[in-house]
Amino acid sequence: MNLNITNVGKFVWKSQSVPGYGFQQVRNKWANWLMIRDVKRRRMSAENFLERTRINAMRRNDVLPVEIRELADKDINKFEMNAIPLRINNRCVITSRPRGIVPEWCMSRIVWRHLADYNKLSGVQRAMWG
């Protein structure tokens, strides 16, 4: 499922009514330093993915001699800590809130509901009874 998040981002940067955003000076496109750090981790993890996967496969292979597996252990420790995929946090793309993320839109539940209330998200409809 390929969703175009950039259109939502363009709306948010132009709108004052979105929670967590007001008219202020914007130095970069990230909400705060926590989000910058998370983007850096995602980039490093993607860059080192193939090499880390190859070395981890060597570490876990029981057929290989112990000496080679020990060398693989040393090689895996040479990577930066931020290259580890476990250090990546899911954050809201608008407010950088770390909790309550709606996965399909990568937004916190608060921002998602606000945009859904004003028909800014396609395919989202309020529940109606009766």
TrEMBL record:
Gene Ontology MF annotations: structural constituent of ribosome
Keywords (A to Z) from UniProt: Ribonucleoprotein, Ribosomal protein
GO CC annotation: mitochondrial small ribosomal subunit
Keyword DNA-binding: no
One GO term (biological process): translation
Pfam families (alphabetical): Ribosomal_S14
InterPro entries, per database record: Ribosomal_uS14
PANTHER family: 30S RIBOSOMAL PROTEIN S14, SMALL RIBOSOMAL SUBUNIT PROTEIN US14M
Family: Belongs to the universal ribosomal protein uS14 family.
Record-given protein name: 28S ribosomal protein S14, mitochondrial
Protein source organism: Papilio machaon
